Each structure stands twice: as structure tokens, then as C-alpha cells.
């Protein structure tokens, strides 16, 4: 097996590996199959920066794609396509990152980004927390050194014939108060329309802030992996690539004895009679 044959086998193996990973991305050949954005397939194919994998085109796609995939809004791929046109970045990476948030991972991302945003709002003091009522004042100036001991009252046995008036446990309400306890009024008080507006604003703000922070962190991790793994591997591969052709420089100047080129202007011979 010659060196050229080995080089071709390695090249075909790299092509198959690249096709395996590219099948999870919106490629140029299958861009027309996507809904909404598929109508602009001819327009997108003429934009070469949407399909390039050089570092200046790839780096913005990591950050914008990571933030966009964590924001729970519909139409993420069309929005990613608009961002790619605006910032001239790679659409294949941008589109592939939008499939990270799917019905299987969506609930975990929603809860995680909300908790991160809520912690950020609490630390910055921007959260709309309900003010806790002050504790009742106690008089400590009594001269009596012996504390007053109140005898405990024995609890009467339950009457089986009387109707059950104790409140029943509500697990969903307990979970609701556990998540939004700081934004809800105390138990037993009705939730007014103003309180509902504050709850919705708090949810949206916490979700957006948490998605931005987590998305930037995710984009930075992908950026570092690309810079530390992909770029050195590409440089190593380009350095080991064998030279298949050798170009030797040669002079194109014609000597005085050589024939002139065919496209050069040649004066016709003198046809005058003696």
C-alpha cells in the first residue's frame, strides 16, 4: 500500500466522520427542508459566511446559540437565522444548538435558569419580595424574676361523628409556595391581580436573566473547547499533510531569437515596389 493510498483512506475516514457530525446540523444541502427558513434556501446558499467553520465565524455562534436555546420562546431557528445574517456568523452551529433544548431537557433547563435568575435578583436586590411583618414587641422590664408558667391544655380526643374541618394537604400548592414563596402573600390571603402581575414579571425577568447567564457560560465553555481542541488539531493535520505537487518557477520572458506569441501584434512586411 503506497503512501498516496494511505492518505486517501485517511481522508475518506475524516470525510465520513465529518458527515456523521454534520447530519445533526442544518446543512446547506438540506436547508430547504426546514420550515419557514427553507423558503430562503436560495438566498442562504449564496451567503458563504453561513457555512464557514473558521474561528471568526464560529465564535459568535457559540454565544448567541447558547443563549437563544435556553430562552423558552417559539421559533428559535428562524430567530437564529436572523442573528446569523445580522452578525455574519455560522448558521450550522447556531441551528444545531437550538436542538439542545427539547421536550426531554426543557423542564430541567426551565427550572435551572429560573433558580439562577431568582438567586441573581435576590443578590442584586431587584427582586419584588414581600415584606415580612415585624414581630410583636415584648416588654422586658418586668421585675418578676419567676416566669409565668402556663399549664398545657390536654387535647381532646377527636369526635368521630363531627365533620372534618381541618385543611387537607395540597401538594401542588406547597410546591407552588416553595418555588414562589417570596413573591406570594401569606397563606390564607387571596392573590390579587397586582400580585399576579408581580409574579409574572418576576418569572419572566428571572427566566431571562438566568438564560443569559447560563448561555454565556455555556458559550464560553464551547469557545474554549474549540480553541483548545479543534484549532490545534486542525493545525496539526495541516502540518502533516503531504505535498502532492511541486511547482517550479520558470521564466516567461521571451528571448530575442524566440518566436513571438501568437496574440502579439506583428507588423506586416513592407509591400512597396522598388
What descriptors fit this protein?
single chain; about 270 residues; mainly alpha; 8 helices; elongated
Q: Can you describe this structure?
A:
The radius of gyration is 36 Å and the shape is elongated. Helix content is 50%, strand content 0%. Helix 3 runs antiparallel to helix 4 and helix 6 packs across helix 8. The chain has eight helices and no strands. The chain is mainly alpha-helical. It has a domain of 186 residues. The mean pLDDT is 76. The longest helix has 48 residues.
User: Which sequence of SSEs, written as H and E, runs from N to C?
Assistant: HHHHHHHH
Number of helices: 8
Question: CA-to-CA gap between the ends?
Answer: 75 Å
The main pleated sheet reads as: none
Unreliable runs, pLDDT <50, ≥5 residues?
A: none
Shape assignment: elongated
Please give the radius of gyration in angstroms. 36 Å
Q: How much is the average pLDDT?
A: 76
Helix content: 40-55%
Number of beta-strand segments? 0
Structural class: mainly alpha
- Taken as a percent bin, the fraction of beta residues is under 5%
Oligomer: single chain
